[in-house]
Automatic annotation (TrEMBL):
A Gene Ontology cellular-component term: proton-transporting V-type ATPase, V0 domain
UniProt lineage: Archaea, Methanobacteriati, Methanobacteriota, Stenosarchaea group, Halobacteria
GO molecular function (one): proton-transporting ATPase activity, rotational mechanism
Source organism: Haloferax litoreum
Source organism superkingdom: Archaea
The protein, known as: A-type ATP synthase subunit I
Length: 723
C-alpha cells in the first residue's frame, strides 16, 4: 500500500512474420506499457524504428472522418447502444454514404446560417433608418445634394455645418436618435464635403442602404425572409438529428474499431526492427509477468521469445537496470542473459497499490503529482488524516450526514473516475464529521445528542468532548490549540520518516540520517524543549494543563522534566549540525520546525469559527440565554420562561421564532440559508485548510512526484465486440 506495484521490464522478440500476431495478442492482454525505441541500437546492431503496418494510413483517415461526423452530428456516449461488431465492409461504402449525407446537410446548414446572420446584420443596420422614418430612396441619388445619416448631439453637428465654408445651405431631419443631414456644397467643394465638415463633431455616420420604400416595410420583408430561413434551418437540423439517432451508435462503434486499428497498425513505430526481426520492450506488473508470457506463448507459440529483463527495486540499486545482448542471427533478434544493451534506461510507470476505501484518495495525491516509482505513496496517510482533520473541524452529526449523502450521490451517479473518487473522499469526510459530531454531541449546532444520549442514556454530565464556545467551556478552546500542535508534530514526523525511508532506499542510510534524520531531531528536540519548564513562563500555560489530571483531556501529562527539555534542545542542535553537513543552504529554514507545527493551529481556529457560525444561525432563530457561563438555546420555551425559572439567566437574543408569525417565517429562511452557508463554507474552509496542511506541510517534507502513468498497450472496449 505504501509502495506501488512492483514492475518488470520485459522484451518481446521475434521475426517480422509473426509481428502482427504478437501485436494482436499483446493488445488483447492489455498489460504491456510499451517503451519507445530511441534509435540507440542503429549504429551497432542495425535496428531502426519500425514502420506502420499496411492499412495504418487508411484507418487513420477514416478515423478522422468519423470524428468529424461525430462532431457535426453532436454524437456522444449517451447515443451508444449495445456493443456490436463493425466488419470491414461497414467502413467502406456505408460510411461513405453517411459522410455524403452529413456533409451535404452540414453545407446546407452553414449556407442557411450565413444567410440568417447576413439578414440579421441587415436588420440591425436598418434600425437607425426606421427611427429616422424617411423613405430610403430619398436619402441618395442626388446630383447637387450630399446626404449623411448618423447619430450624435444635434447642436455641435449643426454648428460644424454652419461653420463649414464648403456648405452653402443645409436641412436636418431627425428621429428620436438618428439625424439625416442634407447639404448643398459650394461649386468647388469635394464629393465628401459634408462628411468632412462633420469631422470632429462626434457624429457616428451610417452607410445608406441601396433600397427603396419605407424602412419599416424593408425590415418587415427582411424579417419574413429570416423566418423562412429559420424554417428551412429547422428542417435541416431535424434531418441531422434523425441521422444522429440512426447512425450515432454505428459511428461510436466505428470510431472505437478504427482507434483500435490505428493503435495496432502504428504499434511498430515503438519497436526496434531490422529487415526480418523486431524487438519490443515495456513494463508490466511483476505479478502478471507469468500470465503475460504464458498467454503470449499460447497464442503465438515458440516463434516469439519473451524475457523478463528487470524487476525494478525500491532501493538504491533500483536504477541498475538488467542488460541484454541483442544480436541478429538468421534475421532474428535474440535477448540473452548477461548481455550489455537495453532499449532505453527508462523508469518504470507507477501503479498505485491502493484498494477499497483508500483508493479514492489517490485523486488528492495526483492533484499534486503522481508518486514516482521509487518513493513512498502517501495515499493511505491521506486516507487516515484528511477525513480526521475535516471531521475534527466541522464535528457535527447533521452536517456529517449531508456530506456523506453528497459523497454517495457523486460516487453512484457518475461514471467519471474523478467524480467517483471525489465522492469517495466526501463520504469519508462525512463519516468522520458524523462521528466527531456524536463525540461533540451536536446536530446542526444544537446539543441534542448531548442532552438525549450522553446525558440521558450514558448518564454523563456533558458530551465526551466540547468545542469551547461558552465561557464555562473556554478551556476546551485552548485545549484544542494544544491538540492541534500535537497533531502537527505527529503529522510532520510521518512526513520526515517517509523522507528518511526513501533516502535510505535510494541513497543509503548515511544520507538519510543527514538529510531527514536532522529534521527529525530538530523537530522533536525543539518541541520537547518547549513542552518543558526549561523556557520558564514563555510557553502558554495551557500547553501544560490540557493533558494534566485536571485538564480537559486528563492524561496526567504536565510537560517533560526540565532536564529532558534541555536534552531536547541539545538534540535540536545536533540535528542542525547534521543538516549543515548535508545541505548548508537549508539552514536558513531551521525555524520551519516551529512555524510548520504552529500552522496546524488552524485546525482549532476553523473548529471554533465553524462552531461560531452554526451558533449564530441557531441564536437568530431559536434565541439563547447564558446561565452560569453556559449557553442554552430557547428550543422549548421563550425568553420570559428562562428569566423566571433560571436565576441569573441573561438573554443573549430572544429568537425570531418567538417574535410572531412574521418573525417565524423570516427566521426559518435564516435558519435554512444559514446552515446551508455553513455547510458550503465547510468545504471552502475546513476542506481547503485540511488539504493545505496535507500538501504544504506534509507533502513538502518528502514528496517529489513525477511518476509516469501506467498506460498498457490495448483498448478498453465500450461500443464494440469481437464476439
Amino acid at each position: 500500500m505504501l509502495r506501488p506495484e512492483q514492475m518488470s521490464k520485459v522484451s518481446v522478440t521475434g521475426s517480422k512474420g509473426v509481428m502482427s500476431e504478437v501485436i494482436e495478442a499483446v493488445h488483447d492482454l492489455r498489460l504491456l506499457h510499451v517503451t519507445e525505441y530511441d534509435g540507440s541500437w542503429q549504429e551497432e546492431f542495425g535496428f531502426e524504428t519500425g514502420a506502420p503496418i499496411e492499412g495504418a494510413e487508411s484507418a487513420s483517415d477514416k478515423l478522422v472522418t468519423i470524428r468529424s461526423l461525430k462532431s457535426i452530428l453532436g454524437v456522444d456516449e449517451n447515443d451508444a447502444g449495445r456493443q456490436r461488431i463493425v466488419p470491414d465492409d461497414a467502413l467502406g461504402e456505408p460510411l461513405e454514404e453517411i459522410r455524403e449525407k452529413v456533409n451535404e446537410l452540414d453545407d446546407r446548414r452553414s449556407e442557411l446560417e450565413n444567410k440568417q446572420n447576413a439578414i440579421g446584420d441587415e436588420i440591425e443596420a436598418m434600425e437607425p433608418f426606421v427611427d429616422l422614418g424617411i423613405d430610403l430612396e430619398l436619402l441618395s441619388g442626388y446630383d447637387s445634394l450630399q446626404v449623411v445619416v448618423g447619430q450624435g448631439k444635434l447642436e455641435p453637428v449643426e454648428r460644424a455645418i454652419v461653420d463649414a465654408p464648403t456648405i452653402d445651405t443645409y436641412e436636418i431631419f431627425s428621429g428620436e436618435r438618428t439625424h439625416a443631414i442634407f447639404g448643398r456644397p459650394t461649386e468647388d467643394a469635394s464629393e465628401t464635403a459634408l462628411v468632412d465638415a462633420l469631422v470632429g463633431s462626434d457624429f457616428a455616420t451610417f452607410e445608406i442602404p441601396d433600397a427603396e420604400g419605407s424602412p419599416k416595410d424593408h425590415v418587415r420583408d427582411l424579417e419574413q425572409q429570416k423566418r423562412e430561413i429559420e424554417s428551412k434551418l429547422d428542417t435541416v437540423e431535424s434531418e441531422l438529428h434523425d441521422l444522429k439517432v440512426e447512425e450515432g451508435e454505428f459511428l461510436l462503434a466505428a470510431e472505437e474499431r478504427l482507434a483500435i486499428d490505428v493503435q495496432k497498425t502504428e504499434a511498430p513505430l515503438s519497436f526496434a526492427t531490422t529487415e526480418n526481426a523486431f524487438v519490443a520492450e515495456g513494463w508490466i506488473p511483476t505479478g502478471q509477468y507469468n500470465e503475460f508470457a504464458s498467454e503470449l506463448k499460447s497464442i503465438v507459440g515458440e516463434r516469439v521469445d519473451v524475457e523478463e529483463l528487470e524487476r525494478a527495486e525500491f532501493s538504491h540499486d533500483g536504477h541498475d537496470h538488467a542488460t541484454e545482448d541483442v544480436s541478429e542471427t538468421g534475421g532474428t533478434a535474440a535477448a540473452t542473459d548477461g548481455g550489455v544493451v537495453t532499449m532505453a534506461n527508462d523508469e518504470p510507470p507507477t501503479v498505485q497499490n491502493n484498494s477499497g476505501a483508500v483508493k479514492p484518495f489517490e485523486l488528492l495525491v495526483q492533484a499534486v503529482n503522481r508518486p514516482n516509482y521509487f518513493e513512498l505513496d502517501p495515499t493511505v496517510i491521506l486516507f487516515l488524516t484528511f477525513p480526521a482533520f475535516f471531521g475534527f473541524m466541522i464535528g457535527d452529526f447533521g452536517y456529517g450526514l449531508l456530506y456523506t449523502a453528497i459523497g454517495y450521490f457523486l460516487y453512484t451517479n457518475f461514471d467519471s473516475n474523478a467524480l467517483k473518487s471525489m465522492g469517495g473522499v466526501t463520504i469519508a469526510a462525512g463519516v468522520s464529521t458524523t462521528l466527531f459530531g456524536i463525540l461533540y454531541g451536536e446536530i446542526f449546532g444544537l446539543h441534542l445528542i448531548t442532552e438525549y444520549f450522553w446525558v440521558g442514556v450514558v448518564d454523563l454530565t456533558h458530551a465526551p468532548i466540547e468545542k469551547g464556545l461558552s465561557p464555562a467551556t473556554a478551556e476546551w478552546a485552548l485545549g484544542w490549540l494544544t491538540v492541534s500542535v500535537i497533531l502537527g508534530i505527529i503529522h510532520l514526523n510521518i512526513g520526515y520518516i517517509f523522507d528518511f525511508v526513501d533516502l535510505a532506499d535510494l541513497h543509503g542510510v548515511k544520507e538519510a540520517v543527514l538529510e531527514a534524520g536532522s529534521w527529525i531531531l530538530m523537530l522533536n528536540g525543539l518541541w520537547v524543549w518547549i513542552f518543558s519548564p526549561a523556557l520558564g513562563d514563555i510557553p502558554p500555560e495551557f500547553l501544560f494543563t490540557t493533558f494534566s489530571s485536571e485538564g480537559v483531556i486528563p492524561l496526567g501529562f504536565t510537560g517533560f522534566p526540565e532536564i529532558i527539555g534541555w536534552a531536547g534542545l541539545g538534540a535540536f542542535f545536533v540535528g542542525l549540525a547534521l543538516l549543515a553537513m548535508a545541505e548548508p543552504a537549508e539552514l536558513i529554514e531551521f525555524i520551519s520546525v516551529l512555524s510548520n507545527v504552529l500552522s496546524y493551529t488552524r485546525l482549532a481556529a476553523v473548529l471554533l469559527a465553524k462552531a461560531g457560525m452554526a451558533f449564530a444561525v441557531n441564536l437568530l432563530f431559536f434565541g439563547a440565554y447564558e446561565h452560569h457561563g453556559e449557553f442554552h438555546f430557547l428550543l422549548n420555551y421563550g425568553p420570559q420562561y428562562a428569566l423566571e425559572h433560571y436565576e441569573g439567566a441573561v438573554i443573549l437574543f430572544p429568537g425570531l421564532m418567538h417574535s410572531g408569525a412574521a418573525g417565524l417565517v423570516g427566521g426559518l429562511v435564516v435558519l435554512v440559508l444559514g446552515h446551508a452557508l455553513v455547510l458550503a463554507l465547510g468545504v471552502t474552509s475546513a476542506g481547503l485548510q485540511a488539504v493545505r496542511l496535507e500538501y504544504v506541510e506534509f507533502f513538502g517534507k518528502f514528496f517529489e512526484g513525477g511518476g509516469r502513468e501506467y498506460e498498457p498497450f490495448g483498448y478498453e472496449r465500450q461500443f464494440t465486440t469481437e464476439d
